[in-house]
Design a protein that fits this description.
This protein has 286 residues and is of the alpha+beta class. It contains 7 helices and 17 strands. 31% of the residues lie in helices and 27% in strands.
């Protein structure tokens, strides 16, 4: 979008300067194993944006968020000529002073948490009962923060390490907020046939007030499992990009750039997964 000032480009999102605000654009790019795949997922950015908007509205009574407007007509004038590209996949947001911590809530034993448990019997220093199996439901959700390493991977770290960098008081606030948001969302999703195995939140400050920012409870930042097929003891069918991860694992790719192109049918089925999650959670179609 020539003429707009690009502030930053992530694996999935592009961020543009918009005066006192920012415009976040969710693209159809897909990242797996810290590589951007060459094959876009049709409509993915629209699903991510619509899902985030849904949760921001549902959770706004717990914590304020950075959203100003998802309507391009409310953006600065220079964005108007790109309305066809931006509508439905972008948000005008307030600038937050982001806290450099991934606030992860886990209700089930999966992903890196399962790997940590197998190795140490704990996740982020939180000891768990022995004898748990992959995908087991935890007796209570746990807060397992993560930080960004130089490699780009999220690395699980004990809360005590987070306290050293941002202080015990703020770490405690993040823990309480993360678990409250997760419990509200998980309870809502369960009534609609979806288990939220885990998810991550990001927070920042605006005028000294803690706000929720970035994407919220999307298939990219969460593990969504169908309740009807849930069976502990192994990996679960998933509404999220785990479907692509599984295909990449089976492809023989060494997880080093460049990533392989996805077959057309895999990209299409992945798009269906994202759309199915949105429909199940909201009762709406895009």
């Amino acid at each position: 979008m020539p003429g707009l000032r690009l502030r930053g480009r992530g694996k999935v999102r592009d961020i543009y300067e918009a005066g006192e605000y920012l415009v976040i654009v969710a693209t159809d790019r897909l990242s797996a194993f810290d590589c951007i795949l060459p094959t876009p997922i049709p409509g993915k950015g629209r699903v991510l944006t619509a899902t985030t908007l849904f949760w921001l509205d549902l959770l706004k009574d717990i914590v304020p968020n950075h959203l100003v407007s998802p309507r391009v007509q409310d953006y600065p004038a220079e964005f108007q000529r790109f309305a066809d590209q931006l509508e439905g996949r972008s948000m005008l947001v307030r600038r937050l002073k982001m806290i450099e911590v991934e606030c992860v809530a886990r209700g089930y034993l999966a992903g890196s948490g399962w790997k940590d448990y197998k190795r140490t019997g704990a996740i982020c220093g939180i000891a768990l009962p022995g004898g748990l199996v992959e995908s087991d439901r935890l007796s209570e959700p746990i807060f397992t923060p993560a930080t960004k390493a130089q490699s780009g991977h999220d690395e699980n770290v004990p809360a005590a390490e987070v306290e050293k960098s941002i202080g015990a008081e703020l770490t405690g606030r993040l823990r309480r907020l993360t678990l409250e948001l997760y419990k509200r969302a998980a309870g809502y999703a369960l009534e609609r046939g979806i288990l939220i195995a885990d998810t991550k939140f990001e927070f920042g400050f605006l005028d000294g007030v803690l706000h929720l920012g970035d994407e919220v409870l999307t298939p990219d930042s969460s593990r969504f499992w169908p309740k009807e097929t849930y069976k502990p003891g192994g990996p679960q069918p998933s509404f999220d990009k785990q479907f692509v991860r599984d295909w990449l694992e089976a492809s023989g790719w060494n997880k080093q750039p460049p990533a392989p192109a996805l077959p057309v049918e895999i990209a299409a089925r992945t798009a269906e997964k994202y759309a199915q999650a949105y429909l199940a959670l909201t009762g709406r179609t895009l």
